[in-house]
Amino acid sequence: MKILLVTSVEPWVRSVSTIDKYVSAGRELGYDIAVYGEPDPELPSMTFTTDISDVDLALFVIQVPSDLPDMPELARLLDSVPRDKRVVVDLWGRYNDTIRLEHDFNHLEKLDGHLGWEWEEAFRSVSNTILQPALKPIRPDVESFLFHGYDPSAVVRNYDSAREAAAAWSKAGPAEKPYGVMYVGSNWQRWDQIRSFLERYAPVRETVGRACLIGWDWGARPDWAIELGIMGIDTDPAFLADLDVDIWDGCSHDNAAGHLSKAKFAPVFHRPLFRHLGMVTVRTFETFYADSLPVLMLPRDFVEAVYGPAALKLVPGDDLAAHLTDALEHPETYWDAVLQTRSHLAVNHSFDRRFQELFGLLDRRMTARGPQ
Q1: Same domain flag for 76 and 199
Q2: Which of 34, 79, 152, 236 could cross-link 49 (Cys pair, CB 3.0–4.6 Å)?
Q3: Residue range 167-177: average pLDDT?
């Protein structure tokens, strides 16, 4: 089977890690799979192609406008790949009515210049099959396909037991784990959650260890956001300085888990729009690769549905300081939850499973349509 992934990829942003996993996993499974476009020297492990002959499935993976090719390349794709072999995966909930939550929104008119109806027309011009990585998409003409996945081979350090994991984690010194808490991700619609987390972590900062934020625009509100009047890319340099939070620029997709492993704890946040839509992201799964304890700052029903019941132990509830302190004092029970969750993810959210789900979904749609 020949599969084409149509999207833009950059080593530092968005869902490039997931795209990379699709290419590598797909090839291991025997598929002829590649990203549409010319090779990128910054992504040497990723396979690219401009050959669109005999494509069995073109997966248009859309987050931002540049994920759709410009003309005439888009016209070439639409003319060469039959419509019933084209699928849109809408990763940012664009194919919905306009949603605004706090400062978050799905139609970024000021930023990318496109209104809601333009996104709907664009998606419908590409395919009749629209998928979203949401547990229950809002629109009846959208189907659930979580897209992002979990690769057990990417785990930084495997353990045979929770006791072994807890012992190694507890004994790790400053050279191995210089931070108590680390978050990897850019400052886009997450500041309120980050600030709340840091405020609640502050009372146990000396015990837990320093915090670190890795990603763009944590140190200062960017000029482009000020000029365009876009909120949700806020920060407070004085507040971060008072807590002695370390700030690094973004890291490439293949270094995220390694960086997170330098901290005792790795929180998982979803921006307000994604929490509302019940969407998963790269970090939903990727954080469990790291040699650190995930702190799931997510709704409990979502956690149980995606991660399984064992992961509820990793949800701190209202008292974050008590949660972190208890994990330091009784790490084995928390690592038991991590190892059980990793097993659950390997069974239910592997990339092999994603391919099975995708092909099953397409088969059901073809059966429902009947003979043409």
Answers
A1: no
A2: 34
A3: 96
